[in-house]
Input
Amino acid sequence: MSNTVLIHGPQGCGKTRNAQALAEHFGCSKVVDDWNGRDTIAGGSLVLTNREDWKAHALPTARRVMPFARAMREAGLVSAAA
Output
């Protein structure tokens, strides 16, 4: 099974800036930045979005879905206290 992860958070929070490190941590082979909430998600992608309506289309495809702050903590890119 491919490792597809969707990370959501507000515009400007650092999703794009940290995309490569997050993709490596979660074992994703490609990054889909600024996902529009509708396009098909390819397997093995780290998907970044600030869309509020991501749930309707992402959940059947994405293996893991999490807010940006949690993804950063899991990847060890910020302290657990942050």
Summary: The beta strands are 5-8, 30-32, 45-49, 64-67. Residues 19-26 form the longest helix (8 residues). DSSP finds three helices and four strands in the chain.
